[in-house]
Specification:
The chain is mostly helical. The protein contains ten helices and two strands; from the N terminus they run H-H-H-E-E-H-H-H-H-H-H-H. Helix 4 runs antiparallel to helix 6.
């Protein structure tokens, strides 16, 4: 926020005692998600380099060792943990989106539209975000706590790791869309606050968003905007550009 005239405009006149948790606690929640992803990365590196054959063959020692190194519990547990973590990333993002579109909270035009009675603005974007978060709550239920015996009960405790991975994949897709919606709403909010400006680093991010998605002055189908935003989010240069402006990594 360094260098933001929007922030400075509230320094002496801000009437709220405290901001909402979704704003105040971003470092704690986002940081914990990052920690979970770092832990998962380490876990994956261990497992991807592990011996999972059965039996394990040691020709120099002329030894065969039968065991259970093939069991997918490490990966299954990790997939479930990451699913819970990234689902929370979407959950806190949706709460910020809800704050932005609510005039009682943001003091901006309802649903970020000056003619809000005529246009719905970002109302359905927030509804979409809420629906995806609700779906994530179901998908985030850990599958690794379940098992269905197979192979005539020889395989009587299985990891369900593939199911855990598939659920995680869907959650990540949902989270990406939720974050894209928040960014679209934030960009619109910055436009509405002009001539006040955000920080130089975020001005650069805002300009790159606007290069792909125009400001919304009347209702239009938002699915294309969300898709364009998710594509921008996957470009490493976008984050690198913001980091270069800040002088440190995000």
């Amino acid at each position: 926020m360094h260098g933001s005239s929007i922030r400075e405009s509230h320094r002496d006149s801000y009437h709220k005692v405290q901001d909402n948790y979704s704003l105040r606690c971003m470092p704690q929640v986002h940081g914990t998600v990052r920690d979970a992803l770092d832990m998962a990365s380490q876990w994956i590196q261990i497992e991807i380099n592990a011996g999972t054959d059965n039996p394990l063959v040691f020709p120099e020692q002329r030894e065969l060792l039968s065991g259970g190194n093939f069991h997918g519990a490490p990966m299954s547990f990790m997939f479930d943990a990451v699913a819970i973590a990234v689902a929370q990333l979407a959950s806190i993002s949706e709460r910020r989106t809800a704050l932005i579109v609510d005039p009682a909270q943001s003091e901006l035009p309802p649903f970020l539209m000056k003619e809000s009675g005529l246009h719905s603005g970002f109302m359905m974007a927030q509804v979409t975000s809420a629906a995806l978060v609700a779906e994530n709550k179901v998908l985030a239920h850990p599958v690794s706590v379940d098992t269905i015996p197979t192979s005539a009960n020889k395989e009587d405790h299985v990891s369900m790791g593939v199911t855990a991975a598939l659920k995680l994949q869907q959650i990540v897709q949902n989270v990406t869309s939720v974050l894209a919606i928040e960014l679209l709403c934030a960009a619109q909010a910055i436009d509405l606050l002009a001539p006040l400006a955000t920080s130089p680093a975020l001005q650069k991010a805002h300009a790159q968003i606007r290069a792909r998605v125009s400001r919304m002055d009347k209702d239009r189908v938002l699915s294309d905007d969300i898709t364009a935003m998710t594509e921008l989010m996957t470009i490493p240069d976008w984050i690198a550009g913001i980091e270069s402006q800040l002088g440190h990594s995000l």
